[in-house]
Automatic annotation (TrEMBL), chain A:
One of its GO terms (biological process) is GPI anchor biosynthetic process. Belongs to the peptidase C13 family. InterPro entries: GPI_transamidase, Peptidase_C13. It comes from the Eukaryota. Coiled coil: none annotated. GO terms for molecular function: GPI-anchor transamidase activity. Residues 1-24 form the signal peptide. Residues 334-356 are annotated as: Disordered. It comes from Dimargaris cristalligena. Pathway: Glycolipid biosynthesis; glycosylphosphatidylinositol-anchor biosynthesis. The active site is at H167, C209. Pfam families: Peptidase_C13 (PF01650). This is Peptidase C13 family-domain-containing protein.
UniProtKB/TrEMBL annotation, chain B:
The chain crosses the membrane at residues 89-111, 156-178, 190-216, 228-247, 259-278, 287-305, 311-329, 350-372, 384-405. Pfam families: PIG-U. InterPro entries: PIG-U. Keywords: Endoplasmic reticulum, GPI-anchor biosynthesis, Membrane, Transmembrane, Transmembrane helix. It is a multi-pass membrane protein. Belongs to the PIGU family. One of its GO terms (biological process) is GPI anchor biosynthetic process. The keyword Transmembrane applies. This is GPI transamidase subunit PIG-U. It is found in: Endoplasmic reticulum membrane. Pathway: Glycolipid biosynthesis; glycosylphosphatidylinositol-anchor biosynthesis. GO terms for cellular component: GPI-anchor transamidase complex.
């Protein structure tokens, strides 16, 4: 009986020696502050927004609806969430009584992708797509009771992608056959946005007839614009669906989409490559890009800067001092952070298996805790043994 | 105290049980995960998932009771923390070992009880006809080791073990207390009842039948009573102070009691409390709490008084009532009860509702997960469906307890007045 008792006791002791491991304390250093600053410096934008406007209505402008919806699907696929997309559509194509396949919008005669689908989030639909609403949306001067989904909640670190399609002319764009927006209005709206710090950079893409005239009047910084056709040129549609009886996509948008098909949220494809891929003989018009207001060379700007919503994540192993103050009982009473490296080298890096935050909180168990732990285990083992025997 | 240790049949039972449990564990590892989340097998007080949550908080230096998720006793923390340092299969082995130990204690209880029953005489009256034997009572066909088989191979027990419900420790404490009380070891039985009460509050009711067991018909009961109460109080205080040392705050006492007595966690389970208290107005809450909890505790003393000559039976009936009316019952309670019932297999021939209650139990246990699925996953049922299955479960347990009581009384009557053995007795 006695030897077994001693054996049981030793057994419990051995098994819980590993249980109360002492974890290394970590010390904070100047490194984390630098890391956080370096993280934010090169990527000057922190969020992406998209404003996709289809300015036409009626069944025979099906292709403009399809243009906008294709761009909508693309930016969604590349990562911009619905909450950051403002979609302005007349939205009268999918459930039109002339639509042979109701509830759907296609951009290809083969109908292999339904753009409308189950989860399209249209923010401004039908008669709400007006010039006034558009300019109010951009400048932020909306009615106080405008719901959140209809506001452009950008800040000075947002990259905004604005896409417009429909019928246009020399310096104007027709809104729903009733009114028009001129290039001056648009330029002033962008200027207001700049004054109010509502954007970091804008990519303005327009697919209409004589589209390049729309961006000639811009005067605010950090705007890169691309249009589908020069002054005096028309933009043409691409596929005609004999089943539906309408054209289903425009050429410029189609070739953009074709290029973007090979792009996903991890791509580093740049705008230079996109713009270089335009072939005027295929598009049947001369698309052009205006970059004089844009500081960066286009071969250094990835597509996902505007078209995607890519989150930059960087792992850091230690907490900066400023955040360490939030979490109580972190065992680092380090001196204040200085710009030059501190005298002590970066502290012993914690083992890779555990996240930094959890380690920071646990302090090594006192002898009292360990004693209580062993004592409880001994008591449990002994009582079970004695009760059974 | 009996001198015959359980025979090798017990080892067969234990080996078979371990093989089944380990086999099921290795065959489908997600079975443990799935069962560990089923509310029939685990409750907020016995869930192993919550155990790991509490361990995590404790390891991080926080008070595990802070998160309002962990309500188990604080002394589990060092135990399971030590288990965690070993590979995960050792946790399963631990639960399996506890199951086997419960079965071991059951066999000892059975050996003790079977030895007693064959020579006991009910009350102080000898049978009227001394030449009349009771062959069905004396030649007990059941061997003590069979209880191990009944308990370990019961599918409810197997599933409860796989679900890693920590109730098994509570069950172990209860059966050890019963065994030591039968053997007359006062301090040990009081210690284990203190452990059981510390874990979940309800076994405190078992103090009464265990006290009667310890007194064992001696006229001089006061010193035994004092000693046992002292041992109980001392053990309880020791356990609570040890848990205070582990956790560092009195939440180790207040938090589990809050949940057990005040029913603050309303996770659905196989009990009758949650449905009522989900929809109760605060104005009436304390009234209904008192009504429900009193219903559980009020039977302890009357049952003990009525069955003061069969205190083990009183303990089993009180356990049955506890399983019925505790705030968070689970299948583990049921499996313990079903493991203890064969101790009184001589009552089975007096039981009238066997077929009904077995069927009701099966219906309830099949319908409960079905209605749960309908309610939670399909959305085509609602809580009433599931609660109805729960009520059927409770009804079957009530039938069991009541029938057992009636059977015991009838048997007492038959032994006292053998002339009425086969006749219908009507009370005028």
């Amino acid at each position: 009986m006695k030897p077994y008792l001693i054996l049981a006791f030793c057994g419990t002791l051995l098994t819980c020696i590993g249980g109360s491991g002492v974890l290394a304390d970590h010390g904070s250093s100047a490194q984390p502050e630098q890391q956080v600053e370096n993280f934010f410096r090169p990527h000057e934008h922190t969020n992406n927004w998209a404003v996709l406007v289809c300015t036409s209505r009626f069944w025979f402008n099906y292709r403009h609806m399809a243009n906008t919806l294709s761009m909508y699907r693309t930016v969604k696929r590349l990562g911009i969430p619905d909450s950051n997309i403002i979609l302005m559509l007349a939205d009268d194509a999918a459930c039109n009584s002339r639509n042979k396949v109701p509830g759907t919008v296609y951009d290809h005669p083969s109908k292999h992708i339904d753009l409308y689908g189950q989860n399209v989030g249209v923010d401004y639909r039908g008669y709400d797509v007006t010039v006034e609403n558009f300019i109010r949306l951009l400048t932020g001067r909306v009615h106080p009771q405008t719901p959140r989904s209809k506001r452009l909640l950008t800040d000075d670190k947002s990259n905004v992608f604005i896409y417009m399609t429909g019928h246009g002319g020399d310096g104007f764009l027709k809104f729903q056959d009733a009114e028009e927006i001129s290039s001056h209005d648009l330029a002033d709206a962008f200027a207001q946005m700049w004054e109010k710090q509502r954007y970091r950079e804008i990519l303005f893409m327009v697919d209409t007839c004589q589209a390049n005239t729309m961006y000639t009047q811009f005067y605010s910084p950090n705007i890169v614009s691309v249009g589908s056709s020069a002054k005096g040129e028309n933009s043409y549609s691409y596929f005609h669906d004999h089943d539906l009886g309408v054209s289903v996509i425009d050429r410029f948008t189609y070739f953009n989409l074709e290029f973007l098909e090979n792009v996903d949220s991890h791509s580093q494809t740049t705008f230079r490559q996109l713009f270089d891929s335009y072939d005027p003989s295929l598009i049947n018009s001369h698309p052009a890009v205006r970059t004089d207001l844009y500081p960066k060379p286009l071969d250094q700007v990835p597509l996902t800067d505007f078209l995607g919503g890519v989150q930059n994540v960087e792992l850091t192993r230690t907490l900066p001092q400023s955040i360490a103050e939030w979490v109580p009982s972190i065992g680092s009473a380090a001196p204040p952070v200085t710009a030059e490296s501190s005298t002590s080298p970066p502290s012993s890096s914690p083992p890779l298996s555990e996240p930094a935050t959890l380690q920071a909180v646990r302090s090594s168990p006192s002898w009292y805790q360990t004693m209580v732990q062993y004592g409880v285990l001994a008591l449990v083992g002994w009582s079970v043994w004695v009760s059974v025997v | 105290m009996t001198t015959n240790p359980p025979r090798s049949r017990f080892l067969y039972a234990a080996g078979l049980a371990c093989a089944i449990r380990l086999g099921l564990y290795y065959l489908s590892p997600e079975l443990t995960q799935t069962l560990g989340q089923r509310i029939e097998f685990v409750t907020p007080l016995t869930s192993f998932k919550r155990m790991t949550e509490g361990l995590h908080l404790h390891a991080a230096g926080f008070d595990p009771y802070d998160g309002n998720l962990y309500f188990q006793p604080a002394l589990y923390l060092p135990l399971f923390q030590a288990l965690r340092t070993l590979p995960p299969v050792f946790t399963m082995v631990f639960f399996m070992a506890m199951d086997v130990l419960v079965a071991y204690q059951l066999v000892w209880i059975a050996a003790n009880k079977f030895r007693r029953t064959s020579t006991r005489v009910v009350g102080d009256k000898t049978p009227a006809d001394p030449s009349c034997n009771f062959p069905e009572d004396i030649n007990l066909p059941l061997q003590p080791e069979s209880l191990a088989f009944f308990y370990l191979l019961n599918p409810l027990t197997i599933l409860s073990c796989l679900a890693q419900s920590t109730l098994i420790i509570n069950s172990f404490a209860i059966v050890t207390a019963l065994r030591r009380a039968l053997e007359g070891r006062l301090i040990q039985s009081m210690f284990w009842i203190a452990v059981a009460s510390y874990i979940s509050f309800y076994p405190i009711m078992l103090l009464f039948p265990i006290g009667v067991l310890l007194i064992n018909n001696q006229p001089n009961y006061k010193p035994i009573l004092m000693r046992s109460l002292g041992a109980f109080a001392g053990s309880l205080v020791g356990l609570l102070s040890l848990s205070y040392m582990v956790v560092g705050s009195f939440a180790c006492l207040t938090s589990p009691l809050n949940v057990i007595l005040l029913v603050t966690d309303l996770t659905p389970n196989l009990g009758v409390y949650w449905y009522f208290f989900i929809e109760m107005f605060d104005h009436f809450r304390s009234f209904f709490l008192i009504a429900f909890q009193m219903h559980t505790f009020i039977f302890a003393i009357p049952v003990t008084i009525r069955f003061k000559n069969q205190p083990l039976f009183a303990a089993i009936i009180i356990l049955g009532i506890m399983t019925l009316f505790k705030s968070y019952p689970s299948i583990g309670d049921m499996s313990l009860l079903l493991g203890l019932i064969p101790l009184y297999h001589e009552l089975f021939k007096y039981m009238r509702y066997g077929f009904v209650l077995i069927n009701a139990m099966i219906y309830a246990l099949v319908l409960a997960p079905l209605f749960w699925h309908l309610w939670i996953y399909q959305g085509s049922g609602n809580a009433n469906f599931f609660y109805a299955a729960t009520l059927v479960y409770a009804a079957s347990q009530i039938l069991l307890v009541v029938d057992l009581t009636k059977a015991q009384i009838k048997r007492e009557l038959n032994r006292q007045y053998p002339a009425v053995r086969d006749k219908l007795v009507v009370q005028e």
